[in-house]
Amino acid sequence: MSEVKNRGGFGGKLVAILAAAGSAIGLGNIWRFPYITSENGGGAFIIIYLGCILFLGLPLLIAEFSVGHNTKKNPIDAFATIKRGWGWLGALGLVSVFLIMGYYFVISGWTLNYAYASATNGIGGDFGAFFKEFTSATWAPLICTYLFIVLNHIIIIGGVQGGIEKASKVMMPLLFVILIVLAIYSLWLPEGREALGNVFTPDFSKVTGKTFLDAMGQAFFTLSVGMGAMLIYGSYFQNGTKLSGTAISVVSLDTLVALTAAVIIFSAGVENESGPQLAFVAMPKVFSTMPLGNFWATLFFLLLALAALSSTISMHEAVTSYFVEKRGMSRSAGATLVTIGAMALATVASLSLGVWDGVRIAGMNIFSLLDNFTAIVMLPLLGILTSIFVGWVWKKEDMRAELTAEGGVDATTYPVIRFLLRYVCPVLVSIVFIFGIIDFISSL
Ligand code: PHE
């Protein structure tokens, strides 16, 4: 077990929760969840989404933690250690998380520009035009994106305790404080409370097969499951960390933040502006009409940046761990390789919103393709495969031992988790996946 000794690890249980919650809480909660919700009929979508979180996302998160914690290895070796010949599943996750990094870093870069512009009164006039002009430009968004990637890099080379742990301890509390301040402020506005009612009222007429696929994809995305990020964090948990308890804390915090972000955004009365622009066009517009608008806008984009950073470090770490542990590189060399790769892909994604917009696959530019392909195809696929692995391939006694002896699951809850992973996840995810894809293709 000598290879295990030199790995880093989180120093405590609370910080393990903070780091994993940091991975989960990201642009998925504050940028993606509100606009996906408003596109899919508001309250109706939220009900389906919560079902996906509880019955699919939570068991998968527990599964992923346990694979990492059991083996204390990087995603590829972790699967291969439990069952020879299954390393490819870890690799598939890492490829997916790398593709996600490609567009995620670009949006993260935007948050820096928006925070800066809000603080210096730089956004004004036509907010839609500002967004379009900025995101389709060549250099400005690229510089912001690179800056963000460098921030990320600095944290990663700091190591698990010196980098990720320290950063999570500072960023997460700050994120919660900003979120609460913004939520209180938005609920204090009378028109906010009214707008809120409209959005959370379920409208089942908008529910289609694609709604279920969107809800499931969002649930997996927001919990970071299937892609090795939670697996690698699970591998850094101390012995004796309660995996189910940690997973429940992470899921609760993540859901709370998503709902609060929706409250903040919808109470600003922007439910008619849907799509990815929701956070970047509608929000600055609303803030501009409020007293101290620039202050609130700066706070909001700082919140987005913090959430993004605590998520991207987990993506980066998952891929870096592969180069360090499997390819024998030093931590800084492995991290540098991932950073350069991410910069290259992010460059393509960013330019695809501007000068390379003409390059389209299935009608989508590279940016949208990365987003849609990972959320609609890779995440469900990884969900199915991970649940099959843990439910059917992993030796029953070993998995049971990991969860009940070490993982803090009691003997009565264990069969429920196992049942969900063996039957409910593979079957439900497959059904939603197939019907959703059919629905999606016919809508193209
Ligand atoms: N869960 C993050 C979010 O909601 C995204 C993420 C995906 C993080 C995959 C890590 C791995 O923004």
CATH architecture label name: Orthogonal Bundle
The molecules bound to the chains, other than polymers, are: phenylalanine
Helix content: over 70%
Distance between the termini: 52 Å
Global structural class: mainly alpha
**How does the major sheet shape up?**
none
Instruction: Give the rounded overall mean pLDDT.
Output: 92
Q: Rg, please? A: 21 Å
Q: What is the highest CATH level, the class?
A: Mainly Alpha
Number of domains: 1
The multimeric state of the shown protein is single chain
Strand content: under 5%
Order of helices and strands: HHHHHHHHHHHHHHHHHHH
Query: What is the total tally of β strands?
Result: 0
Uncertain spans? 1-5
Characteristics:
444 residues, mainly alpha, Hydantoin permease, disordered N terminus, binds phenylalanine
Short description:
The protein has 19 helices and no strands.
Word description of this protein:
The protein is mainly alpha-helical. The chain has a single domain, classed as Hydantoin permease (Orthogonal Bundle). It contains 19 helices and no strands. Helix 2 runs antiparallel to helix 12. The longest helix is centred in the N-terminal third of the chain and has 33 residues. It is globular. The termini are far apart. The N terminus is likely disordered. Phenylalanine binds next to helix 2, helix 3, helix 6, helix 11 and helix 15.
